[in-house]
Structures are given as C-alpha cells and as structure tokens.
## 1
Amino acid sequence: MEEHKSNPSFKPIATRKIYQYILEQFVHLVSTGVLKPGDKIPSERELAESFKVSRPSVREALRVLEIIGLIDIQPGGGAYLKEMELGPFISVVAPLMFSRDRFDLELLEFRELIEIRAIELLPNPLSAEALEPMGRAIGEMRRALLDNDVEAGALADIQFHRSLLLASNSFILQKVLELVVSLFEHAVRGGRSVVLEKQEDAAQLLHDHERIYQELADGNTDHAKKLLSSHLAMVKNLART
Amino acid sequence: MEEHKSNPSFKPIATRKIYQYILEQFVHLVSTGVLKPGDKIPSERELAESFKVSRPSVREALRVLEIIGLIDIQPGGGAYLKEMELGPFISVVAPLMFSRDRFDLELLEFRELIEIRAIELLPNPLSAEALEPMGRAIGEMRRALLDNDVEAGALADIQFHRSLLLASNSFILQKVLELVVSLFEHAVRGGRSVVLEKQEDAAQLLHDHERIYQELADGNTDHAKKLLSSHLAMVKNLART
DNA sequence: CTATAGTAACTGGTATTACCAGTTGACAGG
DNA sequence: CCTGTCAACTGGTAATACCAGTTACTATAG
C-alpha cells in the first residue's frame, strides 16, 4: 500500500468521456431554459453530426438522460424532453433498496417525517385545483374497496398522498416525496404489498383520507396535520405486525 | 385529442430494450448478494458473449450502472462493483436543481428537517468511532479558518454534518442526507458558495460545531439537538441576506 | 541476480457501417 | 372521402475495427 505517495505537486489527470461532454451541454441547455419540456430532440444521427462524434457516443448520453427521466424516447418516433421524472431511476434502484432488512418500516417513518412537513407548507386555503385530484383518489379508493381490489386500493392510497404533496409549495419536498412515493408504488406493483389486505383496515384508510380531505377543504390545516400524523402512525403499526 | 379511446380491454404493449434486461440481471445479482462490492465484473466482450448480445448493448447497461454509482469503470482496467454511491447521479442532476429560484434556501430548510431527525436517532452514548470523524472535521475547519481558506472551510463544514448523519442508524436517512449533502458539496465546488465568506461567521460556525460535538460526546443528545436546530437556523438567516 | 525496458495480451473508448423494426406522412386508387 | 400502400424517416441492435491505456510477462543490460 505504498503506491500512493500523494505528492502534493502532482494531481491525477481526470479523463472525461465524450458522452459526459454531450450530457453537460444538454443539461446546460435545459437549465438555462433554451430547451423546454415538450421540445423534440434532434435525431441521433443529426446530433452525432452536430457534435462531430459517433452515434454510439450520442446514444450513451441519451441513455443517461433517459434514466434520469429527462427525456422520453419513442422508438421509431424520436426523443422529447419532459419535466424531470425520477420514476425510471427508481425502478432500477428499488430492488437494491428493498433487499435491506426493515426497509419498509424505515420508509414509512421517513415518509411520516416528510409528509407532515409538506402539509405544514400547504397554502391556506387550498385551491379547488389542488383539492380535485385528492377527491378523485378518494373516489378511486372507495371503488377499489367495494370491488375488493387490493392493488388498486393501494395505488389509490398512493395517489392520494401524491396529490397531497403536489399541493405543497416546496420543490425539494415534492421531489423527495415523489421519490419515496415512487418507491412505495414500485413495491406495490411488484407484489410486495407494504399495504393492508384486510377489508376493515382498508376501510379505515379510506375513512382517514376522507377526514383529512374534509379538514383541508375547510381550511383546518392544523386538524389535517394531526389526522395525517395519527393516520401514518396507524399504518406503521399495521405494517409492523 | 380524441385519439385516446382508452378501451379498457386492450393494454398498450410495453417493449423493453435489451439493456434493461441486462440491467435487471445485474441488479438482481447484487440485491441477492451474489455480487458483492469489490467484485470485478467480466469484460464487456465476455459479457456480450455470455448474454448473447452485442457489445454496445452491454455498454449501455454498464453506462447506467455507472451513473447509478453501482460500478466503477477504469479504462484499460476493468469494472468493479462498489457500494452504491449517489455522487455521479448528483453531479449530472445538480445543475438542473440549482437553476431553480430559492433552491438554496429550500435545500437548507429541508436539510434542517432531516438532520434534526437524524440526531434524534443517534445511539446514546455515541461510540468513539462515530465521534472520531466529527472531531477530524472540526480540526480541519479550524485549520481552514486560520488559513482563511473559504472553500476548505465549507467542505469541512459539510464533512462535519456528513459524519453526523453517518452515525445515525437509519439507512434511508443516511442516503437522503447523503444526497442533500452531495448537492451542497457540488454547489461549493462549483463556486456557488451557499456558505459564508465573512471571517466572524465562519468562526461562529466552528464554535457551533465544537459545542455540538461536546454535547454529543457527553451524551446530551437533547442539548445537541437544540444546538443543531439553532445552528441551522443561523445558517439559514445568513444565507438569506 | 536484479532492475530496467520492451513487448504482447488484455481492458474500455470510440468510430464506422449495416440492417431491422416501428412510425409517419404523402400519395394513389377505391 | 376513406383506405391501403409505400417511401422516408426514427431508434434498436449488431458486427467490426482501431485506438489508448493497463497489466504482466520476458528478455536484455547492468
């Protein structure tokens, strides 16, 4: 282990790959607003010619942009920019996360921390546009309960919480919670239901959601916060069994 | 906009790309523990032959693994698995984040939320191994203060908080905070110092760290928590100006 | 024998070319 | 006007080649 003389005069030379340069230019164009969501990206062949590089290099850059969730690639169609979306990234990483012990419980605790903060930041009164998706999620959950469709119920549950956070004004909180919620969603779709299968538990969930919705609609943010807190605590207890 | 008839009987056919299959197999091998950090990954040519696909396809999968921070690729050497590391991902995404208004402030607020929770979860008493890196970060910060080295000071600050979170026992909190701290680090290295340049402010930071460290060493977690809270509030106020 | 330099066999990085499959739009024929 | 066909795109994949860097072995000079 004597190789690292670490002569302070000489720093290792960082070699950058060319896909990183392409990536850099793209990100710069997006962050400066030159490229906006919905814009169509030139074809791979055009890009290769513009950058004076080969098509594989362009493809590697696009691959990364795809995983980051910054572009949407349609085979035969083209590539389009979109609002950054953490879904694709999550779907790759999720299995690595859930292989850990007690990850489900930790995730719930973390979600509690974030979600309560999100509700504190909700504007008061809540706009009708913010309330609408929450109401829709509740309706969906009610239907799922009647049909005894466990997975649909769980997804509706997630949708409710997602619409809650979308109403908050913190960009970071939205992104982080989006990440957490995506993890839950991934777990549910993968069949590892972190959720409740018993009918009465699902009914309780629905009931909680309805009450939270009502309090928010009435402008009682404090009440809603307390309800959400106990709601998540209940879920946590159920999951622990 | 009438194209989406959304006939419930027919679901769109999802076509998966072959790099996703390769990715899936890799992630599965890692999450089941067959592949462990430090293991060497076969060469691209071997993999291509094993998977019966072309080398570009293998490369695209490896590219993604590299961005996720799951492997380390040495040109001319080979690829090695490592503990997942969010750094590469952050360095791509960071510019997109910091292009938003008031992101710095939001980041501080979010960090406050997370970090206080992390200190609540600290084991009590704190082990010497957990305290040691914190002490080292304080020493580094003291040196930077004397040398009037702003960037080194900021990085030492980050190092202190990073070592704090590493002592907590929550895997998620560690990962999320690691992500946040990486964002700060990226900002500092990029010259967009979210930090303080005035000598007396830096001295105050150092003083706060020393007190927090002392309280933690003495086992007074509650005191440390209060100190951290006011410490971060102070930083936030300074950043607001 | 040892240490050096040289060399051959790797590795990943990039480029080139080609073909396939899916999409799109124009255009001709009903 | 609708419809089916076809040509010109698009991205997905493959095969091949060459470059540059790493590594380890080897032969040579001391």
Note: Residues 17-19, 53-57, 74-78 of chain B lie near DNA strand D (CB under 10 Å from a C1').
## 2
Amino acid sequence: MKSKTYHHGDLKNALIKAGVEILAKEGIGKLSLRKVALKAGVSHTAPYSHFSDKQSLIAAISTEGFQKLSKSLDSVIKSHADNPKKQLIESAQAYVKFAFANKDIFKIMFSSALEKEKEYPAFVEVSQKTFHQVVEIVEACQEAGIIKSGEADVLAVIIWGQVHGIIALAIEGQISHTVLEKKSLAEIVTQAIEQAIKK
Amino acid sequence: MKSKTYHHGDLKNALIKAGVEILAKEGIGKLSLRKVALKAGVSHTAPYSHFSDKQSLIAAISTEGFQKLSKSLDSVIKSHADNPKKQLIESAQAYVKFAFANKDIFKIMFSSALEKEKEYPAFVEVSQKTFHQVVEIVEACQEAGIIKSGEADVLAVIIWGQVHGIIALAIEGQISHTVLEKKSLAEIVTQAIEQAIKK
DNA sequence: ATTGTAATCTTGACAGTGTCAAGATTTTAA
DNA sequence: TTAAAATCTTGACACTGTCAAGATTACAAT
C-alpha cells in the first residue's frame, strides 16, 4: 500500500528495508541510522521524520520480524487445522527456519537491542499475537488429549520457551559441535516437543 | 591474586569491574570503553593495553559472568551430591537467580553483544564447562533412573534450552503479565523440569 | 486557484564513540 | 646499570546519534 507521494515516496518503508539489508549483510553491529539513510538515498537526518530515534527504527524492524513469523505460524496452523500435534511440531520447525533465515532480525527481536519494548505498541501487539498463536495450538492439543489439561498459557510458555531456548543457544553458538553432529537442530527441537507431549 | 604493581596496579580487573558496574547501573547501551576508562581513573586509551578492542572487554565481562554462574552451579551440585533430581531443579533455580541478579551481564553473555565468541578461548572454555556441568547432572539423573537413557548431551541441550528459553523470554519482557500472575518464573521453570523428567 | 499549514527533507553543528599513532613513563630482566 | 618490554597519555580521525534551523513539497480550507 505504498503511498508513492511526498518527496521520497515511501521513505519509512525504504528505511526499514535498508535496515534489514544492512542487518543481513553486515550484522547488528554495523546498523546505523546514517547508513540506513545513505542507502535510501536521503540525508543523514531524514530518518528523524519517521523515527524518533534509532530505537524506534529497531522497533519497526523487530515488529516486521514478528509479523513475518506470525504469518508463517498462521499458515502452519491453517494447513494442519485438523491435526494439533502436527501444528505444534511444524510451528516449531517454522520457528527454527525463521530464526536461521533471518538470524540478525531474530537477534534484534530477542536480544535486547530494543531497550524499552513497552514503548512500542505495534511491537507489543504483534509479539503478543504471536505468543497467542502458540497458546491456541496448545489449547487445541489439550482438547485432542495430546497435552495434559491445565493453564494453557503457562504450558505454552514452557513449550515455546523450550523451542526458543534451544534456538537461542544455537544461534549464539552455545551448542557444541559434538551435539549437532548427532542431531540437527530441527531434530532436537522435534524430540524436545515429542518428549514434552508424551505423558 | 591482584598484582598491585605497575602504574595503576591492576587496571585490567579494574576495567572489568567498572564495566560490570556501568552495565548494572546504566545498562548495555551505555557501556563504552571511554566511560570504563574514566571510571577506573585512566586515560581513554589505557584500556587498549589490556583489551584489543571493545569486543575483547565484553568477552572478559561475559567470561566472568560464566565463571560466576559456573561456580554457583558447582555449589548446587556439591550440596546435593546424592540427589540428582534436586541437583537439576536447584541448578535451574540458581540459573534463574543468576539471570535476574545480573540482568545485563546475562544479556551480554547471551545476547550476541559478543560477535565472534570463538575468538575468545577463555570464554569458550568456561561456557563449555558450564554446559558440561548440566550434562553431568543429566547423566546422574539417568543413572538414577529419573531421566530416560540416551545421548546425555542432547538431552541436556533440551533441558538447559528449556530453562534458558523461559528465562530469556522473561528477561525480554516476552512473557505476559497474566501468565506471571499465575506462577512465578521459578515455579514455571520447576514445573517445566518436573514435566520433562516424568516419563 | 490561492494560500496557509503541516509534513517532509537538507545543511550544519555538537558531543560521544572506537581506534590508531606517537611518545612518555615505569617495570622488569639481562 | 641499562636495554627492552609493558603500561599509560596526548592528540587525532572518522563515524555515530541527535538537535536546531531552514528549505521544499503536499494538501486542505478558503
């Protein structure tokens, strides 16, 4: 829905896009407002018309990351509407895939580059929505008798946390080679969920 | 073992200490080599006699964090030498405690502030040692019949990942209030382990 | 269509940052 | 005692986030 008007046209999105590119090519340490502006072909302070500060740009990039993740979860949920167990396992796989396809976005989403996330309503909303999708899957699993009954959101934290933790450790290089030689990350995550499910 | 000699005496440790303090008081975003130097009462380039660059200081702080964590795991392991289940649960509690008592050190340890961890042997060594402690607990649990047999390191990744993930999400503010009103983080972590254990 | 206002973007400046080069000081070892 | 090595300082540079002032453009009300 780019509004191709005004001076640049759609600078806000162009800046986000430039930021994502820098993130992918040069990593989180090289992301700067000035470089983003340069890449978008505007002056070094032009971003301030759209983002109050660097944090705000980071929030926008993180938010986009969550939207992408959330959409991917959505399609997994829909394509296994009748099979909650598959929803759970495939969601986890989608999560793994997302994290490794967008390593630096994943890092920015979860690695406290964003200091006061509460100040960014769009970010809060989509991250909560994402978590809620997991809760719904857990509830579906409970109804199907695959997961024990109980507070679904607490159980979702446990399962989601498990998947998240394994991925986070892997991305930080904290999982040793010898482990990853035995099993791929996808397998480890699946095994983790299988174990969590069977009572 | 401070070697109270040379100009400053023990600048290297003083810089690390200053860094930790800034981290605790002002957060990760405010940590700078110059501020650390100022705090230690030396010129702005003095740190370069002890750290090749900022990353290197961050590595040293992270390493110290892991040492602290590792020691705390050690004492848990020793004080429940005859009870592997307790070792596991109490280790997790120690991990929670460490993370929340040293939020910004925890972040720096795991939040990719350190870009090429492999280049810092001391860091690699102590982080591997820490993981190995968890593996040993898992093995003890297996021998006690509390955890199913199988590759202990893979199982350790799963359990450690679970604990780590829940904490990481909590520290990032990604766990909703409604969940934390029902159960404290310590309880959630314990519940997670209990579930992971019982087959 | 004109005009005033708001949105957008630029130029210029400032302080703070990481890091290098050159040199001064001090410790240590021969 | 002296030469070398370690430690620390001064000064500089490019790069960063951000502010202030002003220029340009779009748009809404008349």
Note: Residues 5-7, 32-35, 44-45, 48, 53-54 of chain A lie near DNA strand D (CB under 10 Å from a C1').
